[in-house]
Design brief:
The chain is an alpha+beta fold and 300 residues long. The protein folds into two domains: 5-82, no CATH class; 93-299, Fumarylacetoacetase-like, C-terminal domain (Fumarylacetoacetate hydrolase, domain 2). It has helices spanning 30-37, 45-50, 52-69, 101-108, 184-190, 194-197, 242-249; strands spanning 5-11, 14-20, 26-29, 75-76, 81-82, 93-97, 120-124, 129-130, 135-136, 146-147, 150-156, 172-179, 182-183, 203-211, 220-225, 228-234, 260-262, 284-289, 293-299. The strands form three sheets. Strands 1, 2, 3, 4, 5, 6, 7, 8, 11, 12, 14 and 17 form a twelve-stranded mixed beta sheet that branches. Strands 9-19-18-15-16 form a five-stranded mixed beta sheet, with no helix packed on it. The longest helix has 18 residues, at 52-69. The model has no long low-confidence stretch (mean pLDDT 96).
Length: 300
């Protein structure tokens, strides 16, 4: 079995991780594989990411044995609660603003986008992370302008600083989907974007971690609100490529396994409409990225 997608999930109150089966209908849990084949596997997906290729080889060996014996059955996805791949990040999410020219134009309300010479980098707090199907808190009394931003997120798998562009992809473990939920009023009030981007529940992620070697060269990003397509773009429209982002962020700053980089959002966000189409209580946001899956969350 080829390992393509990993996930973290809760089953009967126990949080664990596993690998998606080839049909993408079920998960082989790490705990079950470890018990069946005496293969040492760590407790969390973050710890597994830190093991790099050594961990993948051990997991691959267990799955190969399972194909021969059938000792572990894939648990159906509809019987578990899928969580963010790394539910408890150890560091803030590295975020990139204005990485699509069309989004710059809609955000700045200009026909000709002022393309930045360098990536705009900010962060989101770790406490903002939630998983698929978890509720986005509308925070009444704090904000009245909640927006969505569908993004491809990069998960780092290898420590490094001052990483050259030519070596950047060697530091990528995989990819997932991220919704950079934003309180536009707070974003404007505080100038710096951290507070407006970091309210609790403002960083949905998931549902799966797609391994780098299983990923395509480009991804299609589609965001729907209550079934209406709002964003539809491709990562080949990036102003700054993933290697360029990794090179820039790692200049003088050490990237660690498990770090997450949100690569920016395309045009079609709520603030870009006239009048703005913000999300409110009861609205459902679905972000689909080719080869990864769909991240769905409803506002409460």
């Amino acid at each position: 079995m080829i390992i393509k997608k990993l996930l973290t999930y809760e089953d009967m109150g126990l949080i664990q991780w596993g690998v998606l089966n080839e049909e993408e209908t079920g998960v082989y849990g790490a705990i079950a594989l470890e018990e069946a084949f005496f293969t040492p596997l760590p407790e969390t997906l973050l710890e597994f990411i830190r093991q790099g290729n050594e961990g993948l080889l051990a997991l691959g060996d267990a799955l190969e044995q399972n194909e021969k014996t059938g000792a572990v059955k894939a648990q159906p996805l509809d019987t578990i609660r899928i969580m963010a791949p790394i539910p408890h990040l150890e560091r803030n999410v590295f975020c990139v603003g204005k990485n699509y020219a069309d989004h710059i134009a809609e955000f700045d309300k200009t026909a000709i986008p002022n393309v930045p010479k360098f990536p705009w980098i900010f962060t989101k707090a770790t406490t903002a992370v939630i998983g698929p199907e978890d509720k986005i808190d509308s925070h009444p009394g704090v904000t009245s302008a909640i927006d969505y931003e569908g993004e491809l997120a990069v998960i780092i798998g290898k420590e490094g600083s001052d990483i050259p562009i030519g070596e950047a992809m060697d530091h990528v473990y995989g990819f997932t989907i991220l919704n950079d939920v934003t309180a536009r009023d707070l974003q404007a009030n505080h100038v710096q974007w951290f507070h407006g981007k970091s309210l609790d529940t403002f960083c949905p992620m998931g549902p799966f971690l797609l391994l780098r070697d299983a990923a395509p060269d480009t991804f299609d990003v589609v965001t729907k609100v209550n079934g209406e397509v709002r964003q539809d773009a491709s990562t080949n429209e990036f102003i700054f490529t993933i290697p360029q982002l990794i090179q820039t962020i790692s200049q003088g700053t050490t990237l660690l396994p498990g770090d997450v980089i949100a690569t920016g959002t395309p045009s079609g966000v709520g603030v870009g409409f006239n009048p703005p189409k913000y999300i409110h209580k009861g609205d459902t946001v679905e972000i689909s990225i080719s080869s990864i899956g769909t991240l769905t969350n409803t506002v409460k």
